[in-house]
Amino acid sequence: MPIQLSNATLPDLPEEVRRPGYDRAALSPGIVHIGLGNFHRAHQAWYLHRLMEQGKALDWAIMGAGVRPNDEAQRLKLAAQDYMTTLIELDPTGRSAEVVGSMIGYVPVEQGNGPLIAQMLDPAIRIVGLTVTEGGYYLDPATKRFDPEHPDIRHDIAHLDTPRTVFGAIVSALASRREAGTGPFTCLSCDNLPGNGRIMREVIVTLAQLADPELGAWIEANVTFPNSMVDCIVPATGPRELALVREFGIADQVPVTHENFRQWVIEDEFCAGRPPWEEVGATITDDVHDYEAMKLRILNGGHQVIAAPAEILGLETISQTMEHPLIRGLFRKIALEEVSPHLHAVPDMTPEAYVDLIDERFSNPAIADTVRRVAFDGSSRHTGAVVPGIHDAVKAGTPVSGLALSQALWARMCTGRRENGSTIEPNDPDWDDLQAVAQAAQDDPAAWLEQRHFYGSLADDPVFAPAFAAWLRQIWDEGTEAALRSYLT
Questions:
Q1: Which CATH number applies to 289-488?
Q2: Cα(377)–Cα(460) distance, rounded to whole angstroms?
Q3: What is the pLDDT of residue 264?
């Protein structure tokens, strides 16, 4: 029978399972991390765990947190196993399991976020981290700037003592720390946004200024918001993953599978100190931008490029998608010919070499990363990772045919119907609007680009707009594979 994961049972786990080699009772909190999904536990928590294995950063343990009602269910699952997670690495040559113990608690999730604010008031907390996805920053879709008119934000401005949002809770905690003289903490975004630290600064400083101008000025002067780039492919946990962890002899309610690759690039801007992450493989640099641009445009953008045709054709996983020669060809040609020319090399990696690396990672058959997970929230992910590359190419006068095809495929996907007639279930916060426009675009392709909050001036561009319209018409007239074949030949 599998062994229930807990502090007490760590010595009883199978020998092949790596488990914490440090005394978890000796850990003390230094980080509050909000958004305890699979990615954080496979990435940031793992880096800290590796430091603790060396006897370092023992006063930087993680207190988990969330602000959504379903986060409480996650908290209860983790609490039942002393906040540990089994990480299963899925390498094409084999798999291995490791128990990560760097998280030592999870703040109760309550309306008004009182427990979360109280935890951030602890002077020992020196970093507050965030993984709330690209769509969680209350950005205007047209400008990609913070929208202070959102009802939740307006509520927080007027009621900082009982905020609804994570950002309101952070501002409330910083206000109390300022009054108590316990000093600021660093706000560390780990989401896939270009300039994620800059965006987090704008959200928090603007909210604070609207609530209390003096508080806003204090935060702007004292709190730091380092930019960072995070990278690891981490599938969602479902029946397959739950069965897999049991094969290792462990009963874990929330295991995480991941690929055999991680990267973390961070600006060294920490107002209250930080763990020495560079000692376990993180890159500390003054310039995150080039790393970030390469990853967002080729990996995150590449995911969107291949997910739309895969969904239309009924493929289930990303590795299956890369086995389809036309879709793999689409990814490589767009990445090499239309995206890479606008990117810069980073130490030890050119854009062209990065395309090969991502090709290999997407093709990993051991990773059951679903097309549905990758395609989720395309309205944030296309506009954050694909559309900026289109603007760069248009501005430079370089080819955009494949990028136009990628948007036509997304429009076709958003009709909600595959080519085999089956239904594509809603998969975007704006699905109803996207579906209505996608259906209108079947007869009038320009209707899709008239979503100017996504495309801006691209709707009027004399090269991109006609290319998009031609591809969408061909997709409807001849099918997805015919359009892909035309592009590749």
A1: 1.10.1040.10
A2: 25
A3: 98
